[in-house]
């Protein structure tokens, strides 16, 4: 067999596809393969052995190890896995090796079909430095690239970018020339970890702008479609959070879509492109735009284009790779679609990634998974299911939740409601932030840019959806449901149920800890007529069970019935209701003194590896000063001093692996030092 220019294997159809990736994108490709009658093969790291994508594949091959460098970046192991499983094609997904020309060439050399563009196109676009020069020569508007060694104060602010990758890895904004060297070093480490290539470059950073990209699809017969544009302006750490099609900016500026599509086609034709790709631009409010990069792969946000065109882009990828032409007629755009990335992270605390079990994930109104919807509804593309575990080695994205409707306002309303009512138990996520963005007046007006979170106050946007009063009511429901559990256990043991008395007695007490509002103590007493809860006058207990409580809540215009659903996972209690999601932890009646930590302790917010130290034991440190850096989920995370004082203990060394909650260091505040000296 010989390889065609597109990277497919000439002489026969594709019958079995290995996806050189994991999680959500692997499941996405498998879904289309099943619909086409094509066999599937998965690869997995040790950390992913229980991942849904492994169970769904026809065959699965282990890649020994946990980190990307040990597993999903090992091209030779992936090719060997494909050959041993009888696969005849490899789909790279996104990230990892998806834009690695050497890997694509090795796939073809092994006699396998490559579900991607020609190797030469990957090479030409693989270097963001060289690709900009090529686009400039082709007539595509570009931002000038800067040599890091030649950056001066006059160039500031600048953006450091990884030449070999994307997704926010290896990207840093520098506004102070004194920070440039350290930031370049940090970006190089992230780029090496994520892509196996530490090369970075700089370009002028535009504080505000609109991130607009064009989906292209080219076949081997010279046909190139500009399938549609997407707007991905709302970002955190230079990584997209909310994406939509079509773009609100493009919709309101006459002629902009035509100019964007023409620039995208020029970019594709300049490198003889084939397959699916994305040309990314940074635009201003006037409709002028500049080439950023070309992603020679499928994008994370491709579902919004599928929803607004009716196309299955993975199906088209497979057909083009098999040497088939694109359909004669390109479909017209329809309706509006919005995608949000649901991350296991805490936006209110510097986007801190989270790890641990996902006890439950249930998104209401879901009409389909990994499939194009024909009617308005919610689509779910996710890499996790109930009881999945989110580790520290990979990106913390849990799912992509996508709405499709006739209008933009309907799509935003549907998606916000689905997210608010979703049951997501076990991890802190960015769900509340996403809902607030989708309901924000600026978003609904289409007034978005890359500085959205800074402009509209991240602290406000990341605030809990549930009010303090509604959270307190939800915790009362949790306490009453827990009492039902206790009564059931007492009956099984042949004991008198606690709380039920003929005579007045002391109230029952249950305590809970909310990560948002602190400790809540619920004091209640069951009576002949219902329940009396201190601080909640007029509360009527309509029904109570271990998993469901219905309360009548007194209001100015009479009683309102509220229903609460309760789930428990150890000491974690999740309460879901239309008021909003609430998660608390039950506190024990008695505290073990050995579990207390010293004041000023810096606890590991996540499992990770210590990669650098910023101070030594005994040093005088200032509030906010970096003490050490952790690497987790392919990103660096700074652990800073909580107050000014003395670093009295440093309990870790470079290279040490730590678990969440580990005491990394202790900073004794200045006032505390003075008190000790006086004593």
Automatic annotation (TrEMBL):
Domain Biotin carboxylation: 13-458
Matching SUPFAM superfamilies: Glutathione synthetase ATP-binding domain-like, PreATP-grasp domain, Rudiment single hybrid motif, Single hybrid motif
Protein origin, superkingdom: Bacteria
Keyword ATP-binding: yes
Record's keyword terms, sorted: ATP-binding, Biotin, Ligase, Nucleotide-binding
Domain ATP-grasp, chain residue ranges per copy: 119-322
Catalysed reactions listed for this entry: N(6)-biotinyl-L-lysyl-[protein] + hydrogencarbonate + ATP = N(6)-carboxybiotinyl-L-lysyl-[protein] + ADP + phosphate + H(+)
One Pfam family this sequence matches: Biotin_lipoyl
Ranges for domain Lipoyl-binding: 593-668
Cofactor(s) the protein requires to work: biotin
GO molecular function terms noted in the UniProt entry: ATP binding; biotin carboxylase activity; metal ion binding
SMART domains according to UniProt: Biotin_carb_C
EC number, UniProt record: 6.3.4.14
Protein name, as recorded: biotin carboxylase
Organism name: Nocardia alba
């Amino acid at each position: 067999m010989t390889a065609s220019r597109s990277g497919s294997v000439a002489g026969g159809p594709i019958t079995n596809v290995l996806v050189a990736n994991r999680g959500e994108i692997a499941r996405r490709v498998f879904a289309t393969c099943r619909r086409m009658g094509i066999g599937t093969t998965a690869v997995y790291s040790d950390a992913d052995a229980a991942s849904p994508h492994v169970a769904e594949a026809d065959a699965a091959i282990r890649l020994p190890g946990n980190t990307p460098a040990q597993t999903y970046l090992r091209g030779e192991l992936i090719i060997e896995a494909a050959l041993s499983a009888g696969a005849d094609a490899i789909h790279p997904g996104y990230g990892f090796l998806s834009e690695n020309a050497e890997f694509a060439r090795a796939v073809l050399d092994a006699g396998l079909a490559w579900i991607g563009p020609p190797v030469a196109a990957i090479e030409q676009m693989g270097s963001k430095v060289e690709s900009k020069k090529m686009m400039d020569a082709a007539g595509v508007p570009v931002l000038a690239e800067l040599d890091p060694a030649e950056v001066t104060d006059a160039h500031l602010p600048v953006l450091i970018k990884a030449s070999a990758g994307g997704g926010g890895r290896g990207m840093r904004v520098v506004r102070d020339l004194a920070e440039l060297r350290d930031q370049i070093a940090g970006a190089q480490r992230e780029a090496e970890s994520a892509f196996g290539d530490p090369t970075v470059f700089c370009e002028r950073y535009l504080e505000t702008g609109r991130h607009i990209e064009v989906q292209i699809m080219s076949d081997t017969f010279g046909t190139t479609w500009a399938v549609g544009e997407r707007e991905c302006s709302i970002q955190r750490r230079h990584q997209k959070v909310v994406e939509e099609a079509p773009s609100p900016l493009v919709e309101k500026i006459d002629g902009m879509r035509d100019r964007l599509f023409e620039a995208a086609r020029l970019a594709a034709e300049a490198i003889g492109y084939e397959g699916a790709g994305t040309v990314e631009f940074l635009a201003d409010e006037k409709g002028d735009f500049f080439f950023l990069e070309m992603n020679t792969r499928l994008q994370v946000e491709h579902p919004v284009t599928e929803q607004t065109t009716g196309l299955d882009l993975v199906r088209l990828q497979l057909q083009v790779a098999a040497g088939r032409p694109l359909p004669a007629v390109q479909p017209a755009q329809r309706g509006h679609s919005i995608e949000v990335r649901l991350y296991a992270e805490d936006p209110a605390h510097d986007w801190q990634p989270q790890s641990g079990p996902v006890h439950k994930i249930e998104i209401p109104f879901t009409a389909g998974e990994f499939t194009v919807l024909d009617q308005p509804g919610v689509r779910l593309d996710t890499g996790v299911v109930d009881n999945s575990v989110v580790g520290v080695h990979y990106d913390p994205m849990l799912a992509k939740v996508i709405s499709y409707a006739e209008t933009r306002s309907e799509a935003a309303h549907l998606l916000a409601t689905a997210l608010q009512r979703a049951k997501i138990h076990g991890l802190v996520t960015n769900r509340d932030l996403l809902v607030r963005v989708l309901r924000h007046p600026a978003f609904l007006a289409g007034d978005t840019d890359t500085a959205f979170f800074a402009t509209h106050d991240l602290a406000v946007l990341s605030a809990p959806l549930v009010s303090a009063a509604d959270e307190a009511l939800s915790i009362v429901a949790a306490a009453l449901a827990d009492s039902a559990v206790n009564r059931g256990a007492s009956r099984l043991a042949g004991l008198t149920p606690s709380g039920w008395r003929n005579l007045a007695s002391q109230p029952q007490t249950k305590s809970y800890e909310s990560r948002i509002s602190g400790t809540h103590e619920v004091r209640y007493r069951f009576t002949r007529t219902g329940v009396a809860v201190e601080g909640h006058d007029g509360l009527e207990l309509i029904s109570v069970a271990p998993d469901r409580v219905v309360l009548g809540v007194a209001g100015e215009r009479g009683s309102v019935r509220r229903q609460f659903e309760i789930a428990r996972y150890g000491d974690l209690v999740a309460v879901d209701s239309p008021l909003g999601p609430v998660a608390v932890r039950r506190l024990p009646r008695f505290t073990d003194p050995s579990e207390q930590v010293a004041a000023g302790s810096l606890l590991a917010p996540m499992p990770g590896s210590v990669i650098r130290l910023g101070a030594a034991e005994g040093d005088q440190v200032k509030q906010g000063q970096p003490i050490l850096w952790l690497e987790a989920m392919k990103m660096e995370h700074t652990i800073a001093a909580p107050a000014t004082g003395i670093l009295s203990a440093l309990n870790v060394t470079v290279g040490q692996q730590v678990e969440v909650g580990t005491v990394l260091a202790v900073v004794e505040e200045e006032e505390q030092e003075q008190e000790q000296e006086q004593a």
